[in-house]
């Protein structure tokens, strides 16, 4: 598995498996299938309500813990130094592990300064190997980063061939922060699976549009975490390291970039939705 080096020297797989919108009931099976396929990076979050499924898969499979790279995220309802600290311990319990490889602030809302301070403490205590941010853009990323001692190792944001995050990559580069893409296949929108540019490139290598798109991102040094609940699709998404894109291929894919994101984190309607998320989506309610 190809890896990248984070700003604290930790090696992280550049391709992983994400479990957003994977039900708690299905999560253990899906994560087990992904690990059997060869994935070692698994991305979950407190707000996905499936950390326990990830943990169950980890402990029942014959894969050494040190070979896995587990990412989770602190949710808004656990924001603030004390609440975040308690939630980190709860995530460790649910994931059935002594440490989390990468811990992110999930959203730029609530007391995310307090959350990040709790994460710095967990990092120093060895509960977490690296910390970072998710969905922080522009000024909010810079403001928090400049005011914290431990610089974010990773920034996870929406990124795919139609939104290649050129500006954010330039913004985070001085801090050594690496970009991680959620929705790396544009969630199937914008006709990614039918796009003629990707199809033409893939035809040369016997690869699908999805494989070409994921190959492009990882070649750019962007960590990608595609999701599928089907083992054959997991396998297809994983098989991207046996071919090389040419410079001409890359230029053609760069031209697909519109810079338009599907989710606007400056939208007050979205902010209200996320602040109320637990009330509407917690399966235990």
From TrEMBL:
**UniProt signal peptide:** none
Q: Name one GO molecular function term.
A: oxidoreductase activity, acting on the CH-OH group of donors, NAD or NADP as acceptor
Q: What's the superkingdom here?
A: Bacteria
- Active-site residues, Swiss-Prot/TrEMBL: 48 (proton donor)
Q: Which InterPro entries match?
A: AKR, Aldo/ket_reductase_CS, NAD(P)_OxRdtase_dom_sf, NADP_OxRdtase_dom
Task: Give the keywords, sorted.
Answer: NADP, Oxidoreductase
Domain NADP-dependent oxidoreductase stretches: 22-256
UniProt site positions, description: Lowers pKa of active site Tyr: 73
* Residues that, per the record, bind substrate: 106
Q: Name the family.
A: Belongs to the aldo/keto reductase family.
Instruction: List the PANTHER family hit by this protein, alphabetically.
Output: 2,5-DIKETO-D-GLUCONIC ACID REDUCTASE (PTHR43827), NADP-DEPENDENT OXIDOREDUCTASE DOMAIN-CONTAINING PROTEIN (PTHR43827:SF3)
Q: What is this protein's name? A: Aldo/keto reductase
Task: Report the source organism.
Answer: Bacteroides finegoldii
């Amino acid at each position: 598995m190809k890896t990248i080096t984070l700003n604290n020297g930790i090696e992280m797989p550049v391709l992983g498996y994400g479990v957003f919108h994977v039900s708690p009931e299905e999560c253990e099976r899906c994560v087990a299938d992904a690990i059997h396929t060869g994935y070692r990076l698994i991305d979950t979050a407190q707000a996905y309500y499936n950390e326990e499924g990830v943990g169950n898969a980890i402990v029942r499979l014959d894969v050494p813990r040190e070979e896995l790279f587990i990412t989770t995220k602190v949710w808004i309802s656990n924001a603030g130094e004390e609440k975040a600290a308690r939630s980190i311990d709860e995530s460790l319990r649910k994931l059935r592990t002594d440490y989390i490889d990468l811990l992110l602030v999930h959203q730029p809302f609530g007391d995310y300064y307090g959350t990040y301070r709790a994460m710095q403490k967990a990092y120093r205590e060895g509960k977490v190997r690296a910390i970072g941010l998710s969905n922080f853009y522009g000024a909010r990323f810079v403001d928090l980063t400049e005011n914290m001692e431990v610089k974010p190792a990773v920034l996870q944001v929406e990124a795919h061939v139609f939104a290649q995050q050129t500006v954010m990559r330039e913004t985070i580069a001085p801090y050594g922060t690496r970009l991680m893409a959620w929705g790396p296949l544009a969630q199937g929108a914008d006709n990614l699976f039918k796009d003629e540019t990707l199809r033409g490139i893939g035809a040369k290598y016997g690869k699908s549009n999805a494989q070409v798109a994921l190959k492009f991102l990882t070649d750019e040094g962007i960590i990608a975490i595609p999701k599928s609940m089907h083992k054959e699709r997991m396998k297809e998404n994983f098989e991207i390291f046996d071919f090389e894109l040419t410079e001409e291929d890359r230029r053609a894919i760069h031209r697909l970039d519109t810079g338009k994101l599907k989710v606007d984190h400056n939208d007050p309607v979205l902010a209200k939705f996320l602040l109320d998320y637990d009330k509407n989506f917690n399966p235990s309610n």
